């Protein structure tokens, strides 16, 4: 009986390690600056939101979520993620535009959930309006994949999110943003070893 109980305890510990592995790191939001005059106005500047700092011991960005993302006319904005070591990617880059056109008139609405992960779908160049909740892959120009979120890499350091509104007349905001990070395998292994050591002590 004790052997069966020990096996079940080991399974429970490993299950806990697997589910407890990812951590969420969050920062605040705010209004998206709306200073452009026409579609693709090059004088516009990006709005940068509060930094998320990820400590050591993590090596994968599992997902990036924008909380309360609200903006009319999705073709106006690009959303860029920058991280340590010169990493950068577009989460989405003005769907439906070639850089000069106004692009998709679909809206992001704050009661939907928008997150980006490597296993998601690309955002269409002609998305449904409003853009539905979902998990999306980082999407660059013309609906093509942009640089994937990092896996198995050094991700400790400061991460920034910036949104650039290329055209005036359509405003927006986010209430905050969140990075879900996964620990390095060695970190998970230490958690498992610690749990097994505790089990041996109890025996």
What is this structure, in a nutshell?
The protein has 203 residues and is an alpha+beta fold. It is 18% helix and 35% strand.
Span of the ends, CA to CA: 13 Å
Q: Tell me the domain tally.
A: 1
Please state the CA-atom Rg, rounded to the nearest Å.
21 Å
Mind telling me which CATH architecture this is? Sandwich
Number of strands: 11
Report the β-strand fraction as a percent range.
Answer: 25-35%
Tally of separate helices: 2
Q: Give the biggest beta sheet.
A: 6 strands, mixed
Name the helicity range: 10-25%
Structural class: alpha+beta
Verbal overview:
- The protein is α+β, with helices and mostly antiparallel strands.
- The protein has one domain: Jelly Rolls (Sandwich), CATH 2.60.120.
- The chain contains 2 helices and 11 strands.
- Strands 1, 4, 5, 8, 9 and 11 form a 6-stranded mixed β-sheet that branches. Strands 2, 3, 6, 7 and 10 form a 5-stranded antiparallel β-sheet that branches.
- A hairpin with a 5-residue loop joins strand 6 (77-82) and strand 7.
- Helix 1 (2-20) packs antiparallel against helix 2.
- The longest helix is centred in the first third of the chain and has 19 residues, at 2-20.
- The radius of gyration is 21 Å and the shape is globular.
- The two termini are 13 Å apart.
